[in-house]
Amino acid sequence: MLLYAVQTLCALFLPYVMSNIVEYGIRQQDMPYIWKEGAIMIALSVGALAVALITNSISSKFSSKLSVNIRKQVFNKVNSLSFEQFSEIGTGSLITRTTDDVGWIEETVVQLPYVLISAPMFFVGGVVLSFKGDWLLPLILLAVSLAVLVVTMLVSWNLEKYWQRGEEFTDVQNRIVRERLSGIRVVRAFDREEYEHQRTKRATSEMCNSFIMGNTISGIIGPIASLLLNVATVAVIYVGATRLQSNVALKAGDIIATIQYIALIANAVLILSWSISFIPHVKVSLKRVGEILDIKNNGNEGSLGFKSDGSIALNNVSFSYAEAHANALTDITLNVNSGEVVGIIGGTGSGKTTLVKLLMYFYSPNFGTIALGGRNYDELNPATVRDNISVALQKSTIFQGTVADNVRMGRSDATDEQVTEALRVAQMETFVKSKEQGINFVLAQSGSNLSGGQKQRINIARTILKDASVYVFDDSFSALDYLTETNLRRSLNGYLKGKTQIIITQRVATAMRCDKVIVLDAGRVVGVGTHQRLLDECDTYREIYFSQMGGNVNE
Which of 9, 332, 386, 435 is packed most tightly, with the most Cβ within 10 A? Predict the structure, then answer.
């Protein structure tokens, strides 16, 4: 801001020096004076140029770092949100807020020092220095400038609603495009391209109409301001010429200097006008980014460092997703002892994965309580819960990078030997040894150079590498053949001996090897016990068993 002030002062003194050259140099034909004042003008110009280069460099670096810091804060904040909070905003909106909205803030930061320092200095300095020549000329310009600012404020009065609506439909457009990309196979399979085009078209039209209206209103300001200021310039020249001929104490150099000051003042007024029209858009962007940063994190912030014994208790837990018409889970009461291997089985939509999300503290139950190691989740930090639980999610996510990089996501400081051991337990040893690079074999994005079973086994290796009290496998064996799963389960039981295992599955063959089996149906627990006991007492389990293993359900 100090450098902007220096740059502005240099620009303000140039017309003053030129006025002296005209009045005392050219008029009196004093060449030494012209050369001396000309050298001063050159020095002022070079100084202003040097300061401008330094100022622009500082401004660019500062604004870039600020936008990077804001994006980091938003990213960190999003990672700390619960799934409910994340869903309220949506991925499409988060993309817009961290790109477009932060971009507007960055642009504002670039222009702000100039608007706060140079524009007022040009305006005030130009008006004050103009009074040096004649009092009437700057009054004309001052009156017109105030009129321009009033017109600008009136035109910009209702701009915010257009920017707000435009940004909201940009969010909608992002969401629709993301849905189309993720579901492109389904869209094409069912010939729904035209329907999806119409959805995108509606969102795009609303977005465009709002932005066009906002830009149109903002665009009116520039021409109006330029017209009024140019009219003022013509008036100043006319009045100045008239007063010069009427023997008023006004010099030709003063008129030339005043005209240059008018240009500086006009520039300042245009900048201020642009800034006033810019404020509604920036206000919307600040509000949208601020909404993310101001979200209060769910869950207790204390109890960091708590180490669970591996026991889990759910007491009358019920849960429903936002805007859902029915509960995903209803009145779930479970007790898992430390070191137990517990299977949870049920059909599609029975609530198995929802139960995992509650255990991971991604969501909080609507009713009831969940306890880990005797401590209720309400008393624990979500990060503490996840430190104690390692989970292989239903979808095996593979990142571009080496096999070791993917497995080390479970434990960043793991040695190559520990990574290799985890891969051995996960039945990936043969695959790794078949590659010349070994654990440094590079995986493509999303693991496109792996089979479904290989993805699941890398996911399992990543899960067991983490030192946790509870290990959850959410349908993580579904892509494995029977022999591989048998070998894997045997290795897991030895490797995780004494640790609690919760195995979510749809396979009876997987569940029947667990110490205890919990049967879910329509979000309710309909059976708990050993395999044989459930065969005798639980109709749902018996139906699943005979449908998969063969036999008559009624036998």
Answer: 332
Indicate whether this model's pTM tops 0.90: no
Q: How many CB atoms lie within 10 A of CB 78?
A: 17
Whether residues 179 and 148 fall in one domain: yes
User: What would the two tokens of residue 550 be?
Assistant: 């063969």
Provide DSSP, 276-311: HHHHHHHHHHHHHHHHHHTPPPPS-S--TT----S-
Q: What is the Rg, in whole angstroms, of the alpha carbon atoms belonging to the chain?
A: 36
- Answer yes or no: is 138 within a domain: yes
Give the strand pairing for 341-345 and 516-521. Answer: parallel
Domain limits at 494? Answer: 312-549
Alpha carbons 213 and 227: distance in angstroms, whole number: 22
Residue 333 lies in a domain: yes
Are residues 197 and 257 both part of a single domain?
yes
- Name the residue with tokens 């500062």: 62
Other CB atoms within 10 A of residue 209 CB: 14
pLDDT for 470-512, tens place per residue? 999 988 887 788 888 888 888 988 888 888 999 988 888 888 8
pLDDT digits (tens, 9 = 90+) for 69-117: 999 998 888 887 777 778 778 888 888 888 888 888 888 888 888 788 8
> Tokens for 74?
């938003």
DSSP label of 205? H
pLDDT 10s digits, 127-186:
776 666 666 777 777 787 778 778 777 777 777 788 888 888 888 888 888 877 778 777
Is residue 147 domain-shared with residue 272, that is, in the same domain?
yes
